[in-house]
Design goal:
Blueprint (H helix, E strand, L loop, with lengths): L2 H12 L2 H21 L5 H16 L7 H17 L3 H9 L1 H24 L7 H6 L4 H10 L4 H26 L17 H20 L5 H15 L9 H16 L4 H7 L3 H26 L3 H8 L4 H9 L11
Helix pairs in contact: 2-3, 3-12, 4-10, 4-11, 4-12, 4-16, 6-14, 8-9, 9-13, 9-14, 9-15, 9-16, 10-11, 14-15
């Protein structure tokens, strides 16, 4: 570590928790502003994510309160639900074999890459399989630990994959939708409907509570998504999400991912970094080929196809999809 970096690290470690949060907020705002100026989709998530990695590695460790993280996930679920209409549902009913096929092929490809890494002892034991499988990263870490696998290396592979997929998906979004970075064209404080906002809050609480009670991966996000989609399709509720609430939710999701990259995780994965990168790139390449097939055979637009097949976290995929003009029901597959 260079002298300026070491000095910054000592300064961060000497700060109180409140002081560290101030630094994280400042670095996040600066990073997000740079990415936003570059019109990069999901800049408001990727900026805080990058800032969290920098602050965490430098020693300014903080923890996102669980209740705030769950609230952010529920809001993202409502964001996706708002984009689901009766015409989109009709398209899903017609093409449901395609959706299931995409999911199955992604899982098979991930398992094959993980098995190959384990078979040729690139990464010991079944760590590679758990680390490369797409899905809820926390769930994969817990399951891996239950089977006696090094959860630190699994964590590194899972979150490295999420970060790489989110970054590449944002670049791909920028290629196909040059104006994708300017989501809040009407400003951050447009007029809002208080009754609709109250209904949305109730929807998020009820849907998130049901998803949490069912103990399904990403249930806090999927509960409001499913409930909100049903209510939205039938016109029983108008989902109101103020831009400032979305910005806070994007930041919380980004911080939660970035703060996972602790010194222990990075140290445990240092030797396996090249192999991990190769495995993730291979998986992303396969999913890219799958997206190309969807575009050619089923005339799905390239951006929707790429986001639908990218093996990243559903919350990150939903945020990127929401920042661009894609089919929101397909994108978070």
């Amino acid at each position: 570590m260079s002298e300026p970096s070491a000095e910054w690290g000592r300064s961060l470690r000497s700060l109180s928790t409140a002081g560290r949060w101030v630094v994280l907020l400042a670095v996040s705002a600066a990073t997000a502003a740079v990415l936003q100026c570059a019109r990069l989709p999901a800049a408001l998530m990727l900026g805080p994510l990058a800032a969290a990695v920098l602050v965490q590695v430098a020693g300014g460790a903080v923890k996102v309160p669980r209740v705030l993280l769950m609230a952010a996930q529920a809001i993202i679920g409502c964001l996706v639900a708002r984009s689901i209409t009766s015409s989109i549902v009709g398209g899903f009913i017609i093409h449901w074999p395609l959706f299931l096929g995409v999911v199955a092929l992604s899982i098979i490809a991930s398992a094959a890459v993980g098995w190959a890494m384990s078979r040729f002892r690139i990464i010991p034991g079944t760590t590679a399989v758990w680390g490369i499988l797409p899905g809820a990263a926390t769930v994969m870490m817990l399951m891996a630990e239950a089977y006696g696998v090094d959860s630190r290396l699994v964590a590194f592979m899972q979150y490295l994959r999420v970060v790489m997929v989110a970054a590449v998906a944002s670049v791909v979004s920028l290629m196909f939708v040059p104006s994708g970075g300017g989501r809040f064209s009407s400003g951050f404080f447009p007029p809002i409907s208080l009754p609709d906002l109250a209904a949305t809050a109730i929807l998020a609480v009820i849907g998130g509570s049901v998803g949490l009670a069912l103990r399904i991966p990403a249930g806090v996000l999927l509960g409001p998504l499913v409930l909100g989609a049903v209510l939205n399709v039938f016109g029983w509720v108008r989902i109101e999400l103020p831009p400032v609430v979305l910005v806070a939710s994007f930041a919380l999701i980004g911080w939660n991912i970035g703060l996972r990259f602790t010194h222990d995780v990075l140290a445990a994965a240092a030797r396996a970094l090249p192999q991990c990168l190769v495995a993730i790139v291979l998986l992303m390449a396969f999913c890219g080929i799958l997206a190309g097939a969807l575009t050619s055979l089923f005339h799905i637009d390239p951006l929707t196809a790429y986001l639908a097949t990218s093996p990243g976290g559903v919350d990150a995929a939903a945020i990127i999809a929401a920042s661009t003009k894609v089919d929101m029901l397909s994108a978070p597959v």
